[in-house]
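Shipment paperwork, digital attachment
Item: protein structure file
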Amino acid sequence: MKNILVTGCAGFIGLHTCKRLLEEGYNITGIDNLNEYYDVNLKLSRLDLLKNNKDFNFLKIDFSDFDQIKELEKYDFDTILHLGAQAGVRYSLTHPHIYIKYNVKGTLNLLEFARKKGIKNFIFASSSSVYGNNKKFPFSETDDVSDPISLYAATKRAGELMCCTYLVSDINNCLN
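Attachment content:
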C-alpha cells in the first residue's frame, strides 16, 4: 500500500483529494497548519470527515517551519502531494511576506525533506494564475509564464521552478 503525504489536507481540494485516495486504498498522512485565512471551524469540519478512516493520520504541521517538518522523518512516504499554500491573489497585495513564507519557503522545506528522505514522487499544485494576462484560452502548459501579474502568481511559478530544480533531470523541460 502506498503512503502519501498530503499538505493542505483541511482545504477544499485537500479534503476531496484525501477522500478519493483513501477510497482507492492509500495510506494518507495529512498535514495542515489550520491558519485563520478563512474559518478554522470549516477546516476542522473537513478533518472530521477524514479522521474516522483508519488509513488517515492528521498532523497539525506548518510546513514553512523546517523544525516541524522534521516530525515527519519517522514516516516512510512514497509520494508527497503538495496542495498546501497561501492562496488568494488580492490578499497577496497586502500580505506579501505570508506568500513568501508558505509558497516559497514552505515548498523549499518540503523539497528538502523529499530530497533527504529519497522521495522521488513530488506532486506540486500550481495555479492558473501563473499564466498572467494570457489572452489565449484554454491555457496550455506550453504558454508563456514569464510575466506574472501578482505576487501569488510569482510564488506559485517559483514553486514550479524549484520543483524542476530538485526533481527533474533535464531542467530545460521546466523552463518552457
